[in-house]
Amino acid sequence: MSKQTKTRRLPAFSFLSSAFLGLALLGSCGDASTQKKPGAEAHLQNLPYPGGIGPQWVYNGPFARPLENANLFVSLAGHTARVTGLLPVDFDLSTLPYYALPEREGNRTRVTIVYPISTADTRTSPNSEPGAFDAVYAFGRKTLNEVADWGGFPFIVYNGGIGLHGPITPYGADGREWQLLRGRVSHGCNRMQGEHAVELAHLLGTNMRTRVWGVDEFAGTLDATVHVLPEGVYDVYKGKAVDVDYPVFNEDGLPEAVRPQPNAERGVHVFPTWDARELSRFVCTYKSSSGLGRERCNHRPPNRVDARTGGRPVGNIECPTGFSLRTVGTAGGRVCVQNTRVLGPFTSVMVKKCLAWGGAEGCAAKTWNERIALDARGNGLCPDGAFFDNQTGYCAEGVHAFGPFPATLVERCVERGGGPACFSARWNKDFLAAIVNTR
């Protein structure tokens, strides 16, 4: 096992010297001409493959500002890149996309996202050494050079010339789409879907929303640390091996079932992922006619799925006797109402609002005055301070999912030993996921 190392941050190179360093060392990454084509279709993107000097890509997803205290964990065994960091204090959790997993950390929210990647074939390319690298920098728009057609996607460098970048492999007879061939195919770098490279660069601090980058322009250092795990080691999230919902291919381009497997000591957490077929307006090419305002990606087709749910059906709510279910807000939110009283549960954010509005003891009650409850709730699918949990289909805050839950789920809860909590409207979301996703 290689000894892990900790690198120091880059010295204050000039723009030209920094850019030249990155360009010179990119030769350690793979050449597109050497890539094998898969025998079965991988996930494709409907981002165009123009060839030559790639376009300027713009990010228009829900993460308007970068993460704080960001860390990126790269697993050569699992072909995964997991980014985690703190959301801005005022981030609206009701807009969080389905593939981002939030958790409370003190008075802040930490988010975790996992991207599929191709990794170095370490049998022939010893370039991707393990270690923790905090000398991280980026190019906002990597274009064609003698090494590969980089497609204009960002290039994130963490170990000299080793980094994360777009897929570089065209697909199909006309070569009009990009393809990520997830497996041991790289010569050192980690390839990503193009839209993922754009989002990741933005999450780490490269402005991909209101900035047009020039050809091979150096985008500066990033306040992040990249952790490359030793060969053969899977990334772990809360005691479970990390995987992502994207096919894996072997060195011959054929599908393989080499994924982390659950055992007595460890389960597997499979993270959802997204692509530009489903969320077409998250990443687009820059067009001067659209500008860099909020309409920047309106020249792309509409998103096929709701970014908050990923197309997952929203879980059923079953109000207790005497209450009726009402749709509220502008995004399909639901509450149980009896006359002028709204039934909880209420989020901690809603309670703070209630107290600030002079609710006093009433803020701890199981039902609130309808006007106060709806004002504090907001107009989202989930109440203010909660997020849509893609694992269960219910709104959640921290580790708890919100009901009231239908009788069928209550019965399963009782059968699994949930006890009196089964009849409450606030369940542990991991327990609920086990009930919802198994029969």
Mean pLDDT: 85
Alpha carbon gap, first and last residue: 42 Å
Biggest sheet character = 6 strands, mixed
Read across the widest sheet, the strand sequence of neighbours is 5-6-4-3-17-8
Number of helices: 6
| Proportion in β-strands | 25-35%
Classify the secondary structure makeup into a structural class.
alpha+beta
Structure commentary:
- By secondary structure, the protein is of the alpha+beta class.
- The chain is 13% helix and 27% strand.
- The chain is built from six helices and 29 strands.
- It starts with 14 loop residues before the first helix and ends with a helix.
- The model is unreliable at 1-25 and 32-40 (pLDDT under 50).
Give the helix/strand layout.
Elements: H1 15-25, E1 44-48, E2 57-59, E3 68-75, E4 80-86, E5 101-105, E6 108-116, E7 119-120, E8 131-133, E9 137-139, E10 155-159, E11 162-165, E12 169-171, E13 177-179, E14 184-186, E15 190-191, H2 194-203, E16 218-221, E17 224-228, E18 236-237, E19 240-244, E20 268-271, E21 283-285, E22 324-328, E23 333-338, E24 341-343, H3 348-356, E25 367-369, H4 370-377, E26 387-389, E27 394-397, E28 400-402, H5 407-415, E29 426-428, H6 429-436
Parallel strand pairs: 3-17, 7-14, 11-15, 19-20
Antiparallel strand pairs: 1-13, 2-21, 3-4, 4-6, 5-6, 8-17, 9-10, 9-16, 10-11, 12-13, 18-19, 22-23, 23-24, 24-25, 26-27, 27-28, 28-29
How would you concisely characterize the structure shown here?
The protein has 439 residues and is α+β, with helices and mostly antiparallel strands.
